[in-house]
Specification:
The structure holds two protein chains of two kinds.
Chain A: H1 2-29, H2 33-38, H3 44-54, H4 60-73, H5 86-121, H6 126-140, H7 143-157, H8 169-199, H9 202-209, H10 214-251, H11 257-266, H12 270-298, H13 300-305
Helix pairs in contact in A: 1-12, 5-6, 5-8, 5-10, 5-12, 6-8, 7-8, 7-10, 8-10, 10-11, 10-12, 11-12
Chain B: H1 5-22, H2 24-27, H3 64-100, H4 102-117, H5 120-131, H6 135-144, H7 147-161, H8 165-172, H9 177-213, H10 225-232, H11 241-268
Helix pairs in contact in B: 1-3, 1-11, 3-4, 3-6, 3-7, 3-9, 3-10, 3-11, 4-7, 5-6, 7-9, 9-10, 9-11, 10-11
Classes of the chains: A mainly alpha, B mainly alpha.
Chain lengths: ~300, ~280
Amino acid sequence: MLGSFLLRAVRMLATLFVVAVAVFIMMRFSGDPVSALAGPDATPEQVAEIAARWGYDRPLPEQFLTYIADTLRGDFGLSVRSYEPASAVFLERVPATLLLGLMSLLCAVLIGMPLGIIAAVNQHSAYDRFVMGLSVLGFAMPNFFLGILLILIFSLYLHLLPSFGSGTWQHLVMPVATLSLSSAGAIARFARSCMLDVLNQPYVASARARGIPGFRRTIVHALPNASIPIVTILGLRFGDLIAGAIIVETVFAWPGVGRLLAASVASRDLAVVQVIVLSTALTMILANLAVDLLYGVLDPRVRRSSR
Amino acid sequence: MKMPVLTRIAVSFLVLIAFCAVFANFLAPLDPLHTNLLARLKPPVFAGGTWANWLGTDELGRDTFSRLLYALRTSLLIAAIGTAIGAIIGTTLGFTAAHFRGATEQIIMAAVDFQAAVPFIILVMFVLAVLGNSMVVFLVLIGFAGWEVYTRLARGLVLSARQRNYVMALEGLEMSWPTIYARHVLPNIASAIIVQLTLNFPATILLETGLSFLGLGVQPPDTSLGLMLGEGRNYLLQAWWLSVLPGLAIFFTTLSMSILGDWLRDRLDPLSQAR
């Protein structure tokens, strides 16, 4: 277990390193950083001075090492919009996005799992078709359009909820609803198919033959086995939530990382964009690692085979 | 071929919007770029407007119906080209991985795993921030969306095809591998890839419209359904139709395509139903 964990950790670091290299190369593609800093009116002396001050006159491998060292220290340079350190600009926005993301994930699981499980138990019933229909709708509905419809209905016509901003629980309702809907649909669909796989296995039939009631059979016997692949999909859903947050935060003017990213890309604030890309990659890699570990906890076979 | 009613409706809708997109320049009653500040934010007919602009006008007095047609054309064109590029790149990489095995396969599959882990929209936004926005950059980026799905799919299918008798027989006849792949393997696995195309198409539309909605995709004076929605968002109170109409167009397009894709998958690829 420990050995395989170490192996995963090393692979994780390797992936991160590859991401960092890719980001470094892309940043150098963005044009000459010196002339961008110096502006069009700079004299050759000023250009040389700026190049020396920011280290752009050094050879590329040395620049790369400096870049890695800076990244490890959390120094990504200044945001060109606010002239504050990019990492500070980013960290300030993290709590809002975490709140939104975790609440949405929680809602998506709490809604999607029961819907999918009940649909699987009642396969081919009207309820099953209804849930599957809902999940297709959830996938086809663009989250920005759903958000705008909610604003139209609940803010502009019914005056029930604030249409933008943050601070109270009322501000959280519509962004969370928007963000969790498509995930809930996908989770329901997936939970249903995982449950169906398990419900058709002989051991469930034997439990039925032993007279174990349907509810207990579903929850105690089938669900633990069905939950293993579902956990995997949750790791992937996490990425969709991050992607969705970019749009949903913009729609509801939610002061989170997603909105910061959209604004920074529009103004080409590369330092901030870079922090966000690197931390998203890190988050996703950690989420996948967590899923792997959870796999071991949920499935004793994985634990034994990796020992 | 017997089609359920819902699938028939979906296909009819897709044919209709494809027709509208292709013939946008003949169907549009007015120039989509013609501004008329005296006729700003006119409501559509069903909200008390006139037939002169039956779907109303936007904040610059441009005809919403004409703009919708052109936006539909742009969005569908980008999604179609994007889907095609992704399918070609992804499938080629899948064939490459399955043919060479070894290190090549490892590298390609590592890239697939990475791509599957990091949300694609983040990568697109990073590249847009670095290179700046232009139609070509944007189109290429959209093209890469979903490539990893095709790679994984094609690799698996090619690996199993190589174990089949017909491929071994052709190999024994000393036919060259490119010919075997192009003439014999590809037609055999095409149905699975076509199913994947239909399932990916809605995701591509959502990616394009989402980015355009943020103002990071299609740039004015061109317009896409997402950009229209994003611009209309500022006039929700005065003119809800400016955002709702393009939103509905996106929603029904992705919905129809998903229904068609599900139906195709069940018909052509019964084994992959469990998803």
